[in-house]
Structure formats: structure tokens, C-alpha cells
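Self-study notes.
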Amino acid sequence: MMLAVLATTMGLMYACKRSDGMEPDQKLVGNISSTVPNIEKGGPDVYNGWLRFPSLESFNNTMNILHGKYEAPKQLAEWEQLYNRQGFLSLRKLYEQIDADTSEDRRAPTVDSLVKSNQLFYCPDSWFAAVLNKDGNIQIADTIYSFRATPKNQEGYAIPAKYAVELVRGVEPMQIPGAKLHRISFDFLEFPQWQWPDEWHVPQPGDPIVIPNLPICQYPSGNMPNWWGQSGGDIYEGNDGTNFPEHNGRTVKLNYHRWRVGYIFYASAGIRLKMLKHTRFAGWQSVTYADEMVMDACCKGKVFIPGLPLIPFNEQVSPGWPNFARYAENNFEKTMKWTASGVFNEIILEHFNFHFKVNYRGRIAERYIRQ
């Protein structure tokens, strides 16, 4: 019943190893007629600096390739390079370039600082960020989708492709005929204080081995509350209560979160672990590496597309735990579920379990979250 009400409400709303010394990609050519032939059959070309997909089917096929072939976000650069010389720079790559300066006296704001001050559009799903260009634009068939940060929030626009020239010239989307605004409020939620044993546990010496023995897809009773954005927090110390060792004299933290986002025609849910150090002047930067990161997760819910019955799903990172691991890693993420629709879609979560364990220079931080 709650899902039906939520679906109806949403329908109404809709109707109303490190980068030191990294060379930047070739600059955008800025030529309105700049195109490149399809590199993959039915794949995109480059037009006005963004990727242009001939159809939603083409977009879905490409996303299936990216999610299936590339396990780590940085591996996506291999696919992006096919389009770089034609003037395409992905939003994912832009994040890397902004944080490429690792000097101790860096003054330019980091990605973290720019996002929190609404100066940079943020997409937590690296696979989707790989197909958006640096300005947050992408074209599917006869519609250009433009995602951007504003002083107060983040917004998405659907713009008729015949007005591409106006968009390239810098005309504001809402001044373009036929453009539609879809507000996006990316909320960095307050750190939830989950309680043992149902949702949250920090293992301690002498604890009964209860949660670790539960299957990762064994969910608690009752559906979880949904959120838009990301849910998680920052950890500055290991399970033993001692702080993570500093990186070149700077404080280090582990950021963990689960995300659930929707960008008009694309929605996804996933998990991420990220090591960051505090720079002297620029904010937090992901340039310090953990010795080992382990993740295990399972999520269950339904996909909402207006006019269609709710589509159930149940996704798991890997069979059993803890065997989904990375070594010498600073950013470890996985898109658990994604969906794309030519109209609008959203992921409705019912449960989202997450287990992770990080070893940073001998300090172990491990958590169990069941929701």
C-alpha cells in the first residue's frame, strides 16, 4: 500500500594509483559540428562536446558495457579515451583533474569543497558520470539533458536537441523554448546513529559473533525509509579507538555511504568507500590509499516508471562475504542497481544491507549496516 501511494505521489511530482603528475585531457574543441563516427555499433558520437546517443536503447547498451566491463571507476578512462580527441571530457574525469594537484600548499578548492558549496554538479555514480560531459550534458535521441549546480541546489533540464546551438552559446536553459526543469536536491544527510544489533555495529573484543554470521541478504523486518542522495558518514579512527595515521602531517578520514539518486531518465543505487586527507587550504582530497578495502552489500526494492507496474529487484555485490576486495585503493565503489527510461524512473528501496572493512596502515575500521 505504501509503495502504491509513493508511486502515485512520485508520478504526480513528475507530471507537475594516484593522480600525481596526471596530464589533462585535450581541451574541448568547442566546434558545434565536431562529431566522431560511432566507435561501437549503435554507440554515441561526440557533438558540441557531449555524447550524443541515437536512442535510449543505444544508451542502455553502452551502460551495460560500462557496468559489465569496468569494475573500478578509474578503469572507465579506457573507454572515455575513445572520445577524448573529439572534444569530450567526462564529468568523472573532471573530478580527477580538479584533485590532481596534490601539493601541500594547494589553494584551489577540491571537488569536495566545490560540491558542498554548490559550485560543482555532483554525481556519486562514476559510471553515469563517465557519460556526462564536464558541463553535465548528454543527448539521447532528440533530447539534451543538462545537469548543473546552482547557488542553492542542483538542477536538471530536458532541452529539445534542435536548440543545441543556444545551449552551446551559453543561453540559460529556461530561456530556451521547450526546456523543462527537474529540480535535484542532493542531500548530504546527517550521520545516522544506527544501533546494534538491527542496523549498526562496530565489532569489539569479546562480542558474540552474531551479525557476521548472518547472510548479507537477510534483511530486518519492516521496510526502510527512502532518501534521495547519499546516506553514510565519516570515520576518523579504527575499531580500537585510535586515530588513522596522518598523511604528510594531515588528518585522514574514511567516508562511507550508500547512494540512491535519480537524474530524470536514469536512476541508480550503490555503495562507496573513500579515503580522504585534509589539505592545508583547499578542503578534503582523495589522495591517500588504504591497504585493503572490503565491501559486501545487498539491496532490494522496486523500480518506478510512470504508467508501468512496479518492477521488483534484489541485487547482491558478490556471493558470500567478505570476498569483494581491493588493495592499495582510495576510492572503491559499486553501482548495485541502475535503470533508464525515456520518460522518468526512480528506484524505491525496501532494504539495503552494507558491510565493509578497511585496513588503513594497520588501523581496522569495520561496520555492519542492516536496514
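Second protein, same conventions, sequence then structure:
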Amino acid sequence: MSRRSRSFAAVALVMTLSLAAPAAVLAGEAEAKNAAKNANCAPGRVETLRNTPGPTGSIVYKVACTGPNLRDAFVRVECRERACTVLN
């Protein structure tokens, strides 16, 4: 195999892998906090419960609610791409 055909094969492989790469979840903690706020939960600490990679990937966050008489209150928020929804 010539040098030129090897470099062409390498470029073709890189392009194929880049097209097959899974879509990333673009939403982050800020979007999760915003979804919690819309569900009448003043957002506090955020922790990741589940991160599912892949073309239909999602992230589930646990957002603690702050305020008086809300010691152990939290909401679970699932984010896919940039859209976040409250699960409970």
C-alpha cells in the first residue's frame, strides 16, 4: 500500500468514527437547577445520579431543595440534549 493510499484510509477512518460518535448530552447543572426552580424547588446542591452515554443519552440529577422546613426535600431531573424534565 502506498503512502498516499494509507493516509487516505486513515482520513476515511477518522471521518467514519466522527460520524458514528454518539451525541452528547448538552444540558448541565444549570439547566437541571432551572427545571427544579420551575417545579417550585429553590435549587441547592446538585449531584449526578446516572449518566447514560450514547445517541439517546441522558443524565439524571438529584437537586436538593433549600428553604425552611425542607431538610431532606429533593427532586430528580432528567436531561436529554438541552431539555430537562422533573421526574418526581
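Instructor comment on the second fold: The two ends are 59 Å apart (CA to CA).
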